[in-house]
Amino acid sequence: MPVKVKSLFISWRTIALALLLSVAAGLSSIAEPVDRIIESAVGAVAWRPVSGDIVVVALDDRTIEKYGRDDFSVRRHAQVIDAIDRAGAKRLFVDFTYERRRNDRDLPLLTDAVKRMHDRIILAASTKWVRGTTAELANVPGPGFGNEVQTGVIGWEFAFWQVWRIPAAVMVDGRIDPSFSAMMADFHPQKASVYALDYSYNVNSIPTYSAADVLAGKIGKRELAGKDVIFAPTAESFQDIHYLPGKDRVPGAYIHIVGAETLKRGIPFDIGWAPAFLLAVIALIAALSRRQTRWFNIAVVTTVSALIIGKLVLMTMLISSSIGAALFFVATVSANVSRSRRRRSAQRENPLSGLPNFEALRTQQSFGSATVIAAKVINFEDLAAFIPGDGIGKLVDQVTRRLQLASQGTTLYHDLDGTFAWLVPYYQHSQIETQLMGLAALFNAPLTIDELKVDVSMAFGVNDEFEGSNAQRLAAALVAAEKSIRSRVLWTKYTPQQKDDAGWQLSFHSQLEDALNAGDIWVAFQPQYRIATRQLVGVEALVRWTHPTRGPISPDEFIVQAEKSQDIYRLTLFVMDQAIRSAAQLQKLGTEIHMSVNLSATLLDHKDLVSTIRVMLSAHHLPPERLTIEITETAQIENSLQARQTLAQIRRAGMRLSIDDYGTGQSNLEYLTEIEADEIKIDKRFVMTMRDSQRNLEVVKSTIDLAHRLGATAVAEGIEDAQTMALLDQLGCDIGQGYLLGKPQLIGDLLASLSPPSDSRRA
């Protein structure tokens, strides 16, 4: 049973799939970037000063400039330790490792200085790697420091090149080793654990003194007595500089201090993603049950705001939460509600006014001798943005009432909110100018929206030529109305000169037919390889148009126009015949290769589509399982019942289904529920940019994961370099396609070169 939102419908199946995918996002790291962005925002506006109980004695650029890095030997380190000891520091944390200094002749000076501080000094034990609560040490103090010397672990995991969580203690060879931050905070962990940093601390408030000043006696008891001191490198040359969320690069010592300050406030607690997710689910399902667009929109805004604000508030209370899965659920449900609204609006009735829309006008009986009048509200978008609340509906209602005076009993059609049309019978042609002048006079008076007076101007276009289809004549009237707006006149008549300017669109049908007969439209074939093995597994048939005067025409241009002019069926059958014929040639060579053919979603309402394809397969003796039907997303699935029947017929016939260019157009959860795809093709705009864009990389990763979770094959388009190929291999993508692997080519050329390419191949 569908949930109705005014004129919007989404199925319980879609909601269930949204729940499933959102849970998967919560259990995985797909939605993690959302939380990271919010946490980074907290770091960017950090307001909380540190306590000042922990100070930094820095081996900074000024110290290096004075002493030189090579001259700042273990002897200097010993001098700094002695100076801090004399100053009466509570404890000293040494953020240096001396593994490579075991043979240094001055090492005894350092070890003696360490021993003089007894249990007031803690040396660093660095890690090779840290994974959560487990670590492997890389450098530990040597035996010269004695068996009694205290050590603390330094090291953390990175995510998105930043430090988000650090360990309180790690498991090393079966024992629990505390971290610097835990020891500074006098926190004694009983088990290995990690915790989230409090990003609200301002790192600029950390007291920091140059080691040069300490050695010179300028910094002493007044600054260091009774304090925990960390002696650490801050100069860029030491490369102990890291990113904190929302902040510039900071020395590692600052991260230890922020961690210690966090633990001093309390032990951070992570409630995970489930509470926020349940809140979002309850709020949206409750809003959907109200069956009103307004309530749904309010619920979305309120829920998103509550999730973000709640996360921020909890962060100040040292409670960590994840809202990525919840926002993912809100986004997916909202996207499907929005798509449902567009689909309903694209049908035969405008939901705002209740009038029939332009699709109803185009599909009625021929206009015959009637004149088409198109009317447009000038600057409608500006008016919609200016009028508050639901005033836009009232505006459209009043505009409709005035226009109905001119239509004189004929049906008024309303498409886009500010666009109208009607037909004038032949016997009223002489009155058209009078009607339009009268309408202009009506709109001289402002419209009243609640207490607001609004001036509305109209522009009209007239098409009184009797040739052409309904769609062409309506389009001509709309073109004329647009010209009226540009020319700042009340109305404009569509002329033959304008027809010549729009010749490409208006004569598309005949041009397409001529191109098919002349061989200007042809089919190229691009190979597809299994990424892991570099084995040729498939070929995609791609239609091409080389116009005698316009030259090569982009498929994006003529395919869209073919869908609009209803010529897409003729074009598709041509490509399908060429593809099946070529697949049969490949089969004769003993190759087990799939042939992929694009199919516009608009064709799914053709009842004889599948039977026609089966006839072609039979004629060329090609098994149906060798044919993959790719559903393109340049148009919506208009007839959902017939579309589902057609998809079911394709699957029963043994053909494979693929969703092409996933991530663009109409690809969303509802698409996935309607099309039980065998493969999902990732659009090339994400593949080609994923090495430079973390966001697009996450889209590719999540799509591959989604395809595998749905039992489908993941196909990546647009592979143009070996690095991208290698990255897709790492991500587990199944099949690749692109210029690195092979350009679209004639079937003869493909048959002549069926050997797998190397990674070094270039387009």
Please summarize what this structure is.
By secondary structure, the protein is an alpha/beta fold.
Annotation keywords:
763 residues; seven-stranded mixed sheet; disordered C terminus; alpha/beta; Alpha-Beta Plaits; eight-stranded mixed barrel; 4 domains
Measure the end-to-end span.
51 Å
Which fold name corresponds to the CATH topology of the largest domain?
A: TIM Barrel
Query: How much strand content do the residues show?
Result: 15-25%
Structural class: alpha/beta
Q: Any idea what the radius of gyration is?
A: 35 Å
Which stretches are low in confidence, meaning pLDDT under 50 for 5 or more residues running? 1-8, 758-763
Question: Which overall shape is indicated by the principal axes computed on the Cα atoms?
Answer: elongated
Strand arrangement in the largest pleated sheet? 24-25-27-28-29-30-31-32
**Largest sheet composition:** 8 strands, mixed, barrel
Helix content, binned percent: 40-55%
Query: From the structure provided, what is the oligomeric state, counting identical versus distinct chains?
Result: single chain
CATH homologous superfamily (4th level) name of the largest domain: EAL domain
Would you mind describing this structure in some detail?
It is a single chain. The chain is of the alpha/beta class and 763 residues long. The chain has 4 domains: 3-31 and 273-345, no CATH class; 54-269, no CATH class; 358-505, Reverse transcriptase/Diguanylate cyclase domain (Alpha-Beta Plaits, 2-Layer Sandwich); 507-752, EAL domain (TIM Barrel), CATH 3.20.20. Helices cover 43% and strands 21% of the residues. It has 29 helices and 32 strands. The strands form 8 sheets. It has an 8-stranded mixed barrel with strand order 24-25-27-28-29-30-31-32, surrounded by 5 helices. The longest helix is centred in the middle third of the chain and has 24 residues, at 293-316. The chain is elongated and about 110 Å long. Residues 1-8 and 758-763 have low confidence and may be disordered.
